[in-house]
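Hey team,

Filing this mostly as a record. A colleague (T.K.) asked me to run one chain through the structure pipeline before their review meeting, and I want the input and output archived in the tracker in case anyone asks later how it was produced. No errors, nothing strange. Just documentation.

Input sequence:
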Amino acid sequence: MLYSKQRIEAFSDGVIAIIITIMVLGIPLPETTDLDGVLGFLRSIFVYFVSFVIVGSFWNQHNKIFSYVEEVTSTVIWVNLLYLFFLSLIPILTNWVLQYPDEIVPVICYDIVYLLVNISYAFIFKYIIKTSHHRSVRAMRRLRQIQNQKPLTKQELSPERRLAVTIIVFIIVITYAVFQTHFYTEILIALPVFSSVANLLFDNDDLFHKQKKRNKPSLRQTNN
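Output structure:
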């Protein structure tokens, strides 16, 4: 059975918009206007900014991958719901971090949820790239096959490898934070931001468009 693509996109956009709204409403106002109160408020703004960048990055990836969807099946709906479920946990984890800014456990849970969102998005990406008949996806599959035949040092970093690297880095940092008594929680808070920025920098869509431009004949070649 096929479902409406527009409805699932509208539902996803609505959920993500609510997630951002809940996060900004959860920022606690400072109880005092002295230096400590202002610095604490600025720290809360920083944590909100981190969550905003993360949610915005995932919305951007979700929007791109669904542009290749031609037929929405029940499998697409369920993996998308799983993705939105983990993404919707970010506001409550953000609020937990804001309430206990100096505690390591809330930040570790925050990073774990970020990893779960990444993993659930990987399921969406893999399923859509595998099943879509969109011409851009077919070209991307051919490009990835060509890239896989090259030595690893000459390959673009695929989404699967990016996810594996992300998981390994997060596990190492979280493990170190657990056994290190004096660990800056800001590092764990900022880690998802660096990962989100890396996802944007190493986007496979950019690789596809570069390859498409490289293979596009010039005007002089066309005239000849």
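Quick notes for T.K.: Residues 35-66 form the longest helix (32 residues). The mean pLDDT is 77.
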